[in-house]
Structures are given as C-alpha cells and as structure tokens.
Design a protein that fits this description.
The structure holds three protein chains of three kinds. By secondary structure, chain A is mainly alpha-helical. Chain A is 79% helix and 0% strand. Classes of the chains: A mainly alpha, B mainly alpha, C alpha/beta. The interface between B and C is medium-sized, with 22 and 35 residues.
Chain lengths: 266, 273, 260
C-alpha cells in the first residue's frame, strides 16, 4: 500500500497568533501575581485546624434543639424583612424600569441615566448597603428592609426594562393610531403585556431576597443573621448547626413554592 | 370569554375586560399581599410612615459619609486589601472551576444514568447553594482563625454550588448524538466525554466561570466583614472607627472594581460565544 | 461473519423489537434492510454493535457470541464495527479533522487521546479517509459550517478512519435530498467494494435499496419477512414487506442522475 500523506498544517493568521499569545501571557501574569501576592499562613491554619476541627464540625451536625423557638422566630423575622423589602423594590423598580427602557423613554440621555442608576445600585453588595443603613437608621430590621429594597430595585429595574423592551409595539402603535392618550396606552397596551413577567421576576427576587436577608443580621440589620453572629462569636456551634438546618429547610420550601407559583403565572 | 382586541379599545370607552371571577380572585390576591406587607412592616418597624419620619435623619447621617476621602484609596494597606480581594476571588474561582467538573457530570441526568447517584448529587448541590457564604466564612474562620484562607475556602464551596448546578444544566442540554457515535465506535467513557461533550459545553463553561468570578468578587468584599480577609475587613474597621468619609471612598472603590470586572468579563464573554 | 440465531428483543416497555430473527451475513456483502418505520430495522442494526442488547438468542460476530460481552470485550467489538447515523452525529463545534480522528478513539489509549497525541499514522489515515470521500479541503472547517451531505461524508470518513471490518448505516440518507442521497450511497458502495467491508444499511426507499444492495432483508413487526438477493425482488416483494401498496413516498427518486 502506498505511503499515506500527512494532512497539511493548519494556517493561522499571524494576528490571531499574536492575539492569543498576548491573552495567554496576561492570564499567566495574573496567576503569578495572585499566587505571589496571596499570603496564607499555612502553618498557623493547620495548627488551628488540628485544635478546632473537633470542636466545630461534629457540633454543627448535632443541632441544639432547645434553641428552636428562638431561631424560628428570627427566621420568621427574616421572612418579614425579605417580603417587605421585595415588595418595596417591586414597586420602586417600575418607574426606573420604564425610565431605562428604550421603547418607553424616547430620550436617549434619560434611558442612559436610568440604566446607569440601575447598574450602580446593583454593584453594591447587599451587605454593604445593610452596613450603610445600620449606620443611618440604627441596628434594627428596618435597616435590613431598606438594604433589601434598594439592592433588589437595581436587579428588578433592569429585568423590568428588558421585559418592556421586548413587548409587542404594534399594539401600542395601533392604540396611538386610535387616538388613545399616553396613560390609556400604558394601562391597556403596555401593562397587560408585562404583568406576568413583572410578577414572575418579583417573586423570583423574593426567593433571592430570602437568601440575602438571612445574613443581614451579621452587620446588625435584623433577622436570623443576628443569631448567626452571636452563635459564631460565642462559638456556639450546636446552635449554628440548628440555624443552618433551619435556613436550608426554609429556603428550600420558599424556592419550591415560588417556582410553583411562577410556573402558573407564565 | 371573547378575546379583547386592544387595537379596538377606544379612548373613553373601555368595556369590562375581566370576568367577575377573575376580578374577585385578583382582589383576594391583592388583599393578601397587602395584608402580609402591612404585617411585615409592622413586625420590622419599617412602615412607610417610619420611612418618612426617618428620612431626614437618614440623610443627615448619610451626609456624614461625604465628601469621600479618596486619599485613603492610595494607602498601601487599602491597596493591599483590594488586591487581596481580587486574588481570593481568582483562586476560589479557579479551584471551584476544577472541582465542579466531576460534580456537574455526576449531577447531569444524561451522563449519570444511575438514578440514585444523580438524585443524591442534585440534592447535595441544592443544599450547598442554600448555605449563605457568610455562614460558611464564619465556620471556616472558627476552624482556621482569621485570615484569607477561610475566606477562600468559603468562596470555593459557595461558588461550587452555583457553578456545578448551572454547568450540569448546560450538560443536560447538549446534543447527545455525537456521544452515541463515539460509544458505538468503541471509545471509552472518558474519551467520549472529552471528545463529544467538552467541545459542546466549553463556551458556556467559560462564560459561567466568569459569571461566578463576578459573584466571588462581590462575595469576597463582604467576607471581610466577618474577618475572612479582603477589602471588607478594612471597610469594617473604618466604619467601626467612625471614619465614614474613608468608608465611603472604599465603598466607591469597591463599586468601581465591580463595574470594571463586570465590563471585562462581558467583553470576554462576547468574544467566546 | 455475522449470524443471528433466534434473536429476540423485548424493550422494557413491552415493545417487541426483534422476534426470532435468523440471519447470516457473509464477508463483503452489501445488505440493505427495508421495512416501515418501527419494523425493527434500527433494532436489528443496533444489536450488532450492542447499542441495544437482545433479550434472547445468540448473536455471533466472527464466531463469538457478542450478547455476553461486557466492558473491554464490548469496546473491542465496537472498534471493528463502524456506524453511520441519520443525523451524522458529528460534534458541531469541533473541526472536521478532530471529528474524523474521533474514529481512532477506540484504538487509542485514554491518556494519549486526551492530550491530543494521535500518532502520525492516525493523522495521515484521517486525511486519507477525507480524501476518499473528496472533502479533504474542509479539513479545518467547523462541522456546523458544512452542508448535510458534506457532514455525512465526514461521518463516512470518521468510520473509514476507524478501519472497521463491518459498517452499519442507520438511515444514512433520510435527512438528505435525492442527488446527495445517491452520492452518499455511492461512496458507501465504493468502500464496500474496494475495502471488502461488510456493509449493512437501513433504508426505507425502495428504489435506492434496489439500486445499491446485493441482498435485501425485509422486516415487519420485528420479524424477517423476506431475505434474498436483489435479483429475486420485485414490487410484490415490497408490498408483502410493507403490508400495503407501494406509494410515491417510498421512492427517493433518481433526481438528475443519468439512467443507463
């Protein structure tokens, strides 16, 4: 049989090769910087682990049921915070969503401002917001509600504006042609199209907010996080075990219910 | 019920659009939501009235954060804290990206055909995702003491839960035909996955890893608040010392960092997909 | 040689896939299986490389009962049986070369294949296979940039690279237009002649079966209802196999091919 021929080499354009090498070099440099820069005291971490492992892990799996009432009350307070915050956000996000949607606000400058506000709000981690509000209104659940409300407004406003931008504009045009005024178009042409998605996103956001509000108490903004903070500073790992268990169960139930409701809406 | 043609609805002449049943149901839902809201606000002392009364107070206190003292951002300890935050996120994302490969294969129904193994994996990943990152950080700080190491561990576990779930969903949506062809030609399981599955999920994989990197940057900021390293630690100190102008500058710094990282990762994502 | 001895297959949901099948296929034959969809053609073909496993009987490939095969034996069996699919089953995002080299996976160690260390021979073999189906110029194109007919040719090249003793083709032209269908069948026939590879093809187009087959096996409801050389086949045979009159859509049509 005749000698087989090798396939021709793949031709890469030099630009592509150079581009790839630059990216590869940048990534390698980033990792070198990371590993040289990070300062982990392995010896100390190991020593601590030897001392503490036994004191922490087994206790986490042995929840302190005597604290059940206290923990459950705090969890319910967390749910109140999440609910009040989410609902506030669901309403606050509506005008911002309209402002940021290209097809609702015909002024490019204004939509730009709207989008910028929304992404600016989103960039703040919830806990940092909570920290700010704790300083402003004192260490109570109200600070938590405000943190959740503001944090969620950023995300919901963005999602709302995307929903608005995807609506069927022919309906709106038809109404304009019929001589309907702006408010009528809004209530009969726009809102019926976006209500299911708005609701669905708001409920989804409630799910996220329940998770987020479990930790707000760590900085003093109420809810179960307060107990998390105390349990860890008192090294009460049995109670921490119960707290984690309750969070897992409640969050799972909320996720389940919310998914079921959202399925029915859309 | 007759479908309403919105184009026909004239100004000033709107017929009743909903049936009595729908109306009463909507009213009920609205009532329940409102009642729950009022109750929640009562329980958390956050009635709108409270907000109005508290508002001037709030603004007065927020005013103390201004003007931000940007000079603090060039202090070497703050620069180091910012670098530490980025480094923690890079390490945690890298480790989570590696670890999530076997986990997401086990959590994908089309690859792991064993019903119990798959079910267990799904359950495990869901539970993992419900534990807040701060709680993980507190536990690891409890074990390893203050520092970056517990922070990195907390980030790894936290992002692993998110990443493995999203990637196993991506795996479940791939085209199984080429995998069948490879199995039919005698390729082993690992070869089939590497040649049939990996090329199909690689773009989404990279995109999701970048997404988790963004999440980790935000999370590692926060972890500092409980002593797990990074810029959050500095922020917490400044607030405790009531250096609010410094705190504001750091907060703005965090904001800029998050926006820049988001911008870069969006660019990379566009180039990949 | 492939030999079905009283082979039956009942799917877990109770469907009878194969029923007492007795067939012997000799070296170098080009066999076309015909029948309506659901007649068991696919099950027949997929039993040979054990993508499905018959529930009773014996299936001899090269004098070994493959129904007992597991793990390594099964992989070794599959490396000598190439398979072509209706939907080409290429990795759409990978390039043609990588798709064709996938045919060597069964012959290559796991580690070598993962670090992309295919031998020189394997790579030249892959290139040669692409040349045989005249698609070598698409070597580095991504699979999803090719037309259906081109993709099917790449999948034939993948099978050639596997160096099989048998080729199974499961409805290889069902997703193609008439001229491309004839092109693909011609390549399969050419390979069958030149390399003496036993080829078994599922088709539901009567005219194509008649044109390319040496031998036709007709199936209905999991049973073999006809088995004989093409010369013995006529319209009545097909009506018997299909259990109804022949219709227009049982024909692929010659399109713009010349009749001689």
């Amino acid at each position: 049989m005749a000698e087989l021929q090798m396939p021709p080499k793949k031709k890469n354009s030099p630009v592509k090769t150079i581009k790839r090498s630059i990216i590869a070099a940048a990534v390698i440099a980033l990792y070198i910087w990371t590993f040289l820069g990070i300062n982990i005291d392995w010896a100390r971490a190991f020593e601590r682990m030897v001392n503490n492992f036994e004191r922490v892990i087994p206790r986490l799996f042995n929840p302190d049921w005597d604290a059940f009432d206290k923990v459950m009350d705090a969890m319910i307070e967390t749910l109140y915070i999440a609910f009040a915050g989410s609902l506030m956000a669901a309403i606050l996000a509506i005008p911002l969503g309209f402002l940021a949607a290209n097809n609702m606000t015909n002024n490019r400058f204004l939509t730009g401002v709207g989008k910028w506000i929304l992404s600016a709000v989103r960039a703040f981690p919830d806990l940092i917001l909570a920290l700010l509000f704790v300083v402003a209104v004192g260490p109570n659940p109200f600070a938590g509600v405000l943190a959740i409300a503001i944090g969620s407004t950023g995300m919901l406003g963005k999602l709302y504006s995307e929903v608005l931008e995807s609506i069927d504009m022919k309906v709106v045009e038809a109404m304009e042609a019929n001589g309907a005024n702006k408010l009528q178009i809004l209530f009969h042409g726009v809102i019926p199209q976006v209500i299911p998605e708005f609701l669905s996103y708001a409920i989804y956001r409630f799910e996220v907010d329940v998770r987020a509000s479990t930790i707000l108490g760590v900085v003093g903004a109420g809810g179960i996080g307060t107990l998390i903070f105390f349990a860890s500073s008192n090294r009460n790992w049995n109670e921490m075990g119960l707290i984690i268990l309750i969070i897992i169960v409640v969050v799972t139930i909320i996720d389940f219910i919310s998914a079921a409701i959202r399925k029915r809406i859309v | 019920m007759k479908k309403i043609d919105y184009g026909q609805v004239m100004a000033g002449k709107t017929p009743s659009i909903y049936t009595a049943k729908t109306k009463s149901r909507l009213l009920l839902i609205f009532g329940v939501v409102l009642a729950l809201y009022l109750f929640s606000t009562y329980q958390t002392n956050s009635t709108p009235a409270e907000l109005v009364i508290g508002l001037p107070n709030l603004f007065a206190l927020l005013a103390k954060f201004f003007p931000p003292n940007f000079e603090v951002l060039i202090a070497s300890s703050v620069v180091a804290a910012f670098s530490e935050t980025i480094q923690m996120a890079i390490i945690a994302t890298t480790v989570a990206a590696v670890l999530c490969v076997p986990l997401s294969l086990l959590g994908a129904q089309n690859i792991t055909t064993n019903k119990y193994l798959y079910g267990f994996m799904r359950f495990f990943l869901n539970v993992l995702r419900t534990i807040p990152d701060i709680v993980l950080a507190l536990i690891f700080v409890g074990i390893f003491g203050l520092g970056v190491f517990p922070g990195i561990l907390a980030l790894i576990i936290f992002s692993l839960g998110i990443l493995a779930k999203l990637i196993s969903e991506t795996i479940e949506s791939v085209d199984m035909n080429p995998l069948e062809a490879m199995q039919a030609s005698g390729a082993g399981t690992i070869q089939t996955i590497y040649y049939g599955l990996v090329p199909q999920v690689l773009p989404q994989f990279s995109s999701l890893v970048l997404y988790v990197f963004e999440i980790n940057i935000r999370a590692s900021v926060v972890l500092g608040l409980v002593g797990a390293g990074g810029v959050g630690l500095v922020l917490d100190q400044q607030i405790r010392l009531y250096n609010l102008e410094n705190a504001m500058a750091i907060i703005i710094g965090i904001f800029v960092l998050v926006v820049i990282i988001e911008f870069i990762s969006n660019k990379i994502r566009e180039a990949i997909v | 040689m492939i030999e079905f001895k009283d082979v039956s297959l009942v799917y877990p949901n109770g469907t009878q896939g194969l029923k007492d099948v007795n067939v012997k296929i000799k070296e170098g034959e080009f066999v076309v299986i015909v029948g309506l969809s659901g007649a068991g053609k696919s099950t027949f073909i997929r039993s040979i490389n054990r993508i499905v496993t018959p529930t009773s009987g014996a299936l001899m490939v090269d004098d070994q009962d493959i129904l007992t095969f597991k793990g390594k034996d099964l992989r070794r069996l599959r490396t000598k049986i190439g398979m072509i699919f209706q939907n080409y089953n290429l990795v759409k995002r990978s390039n043609v070369m990588k798709n064709v080299l996938a045919g060597r996976l069964g012959h290559t160690g796991t580690f070598r294949s993962i670090v992309n260390l295919f031998s020189k021979e394997d790579r030249s073999l892959a290139y040669e296979s692409l040349r045989r189906v005249n698609i070598e110029e698409k070597l580095y194109s991504r699979a999803d940039e090719l037309s259906g007919g081109q993709q099917q040719r790449v999948s034939i090249a993948r099978v050639l690279t596997q160096k099989p003793t048998y080729i199974l083709a499961d409805e290889p032209v069902a997703s193609l237009d008439p001229p491309t269908s004839h092109q693909v069948m011609s390549y399969l026939k050419k390979i069958n002649r030149e390399d003496k590879i036993t080829t078994i093809v599922n088709l539901h187009f009567i005219d194509m079966a008649m044109e390319y087959a040496d031998r036709i096996i007709g199936m209905r409801a999991g049973e073999v209802v006809f088995d004989g050389p093409v010369s013995e086949v006529n319209d009545q045979t097909f009506e018997q196999i299909y259990g109804r009159a022949i219709r227009e859509d049982d024909m692929r049509g010659g399109a713009d091919r010349e009749e001689d």
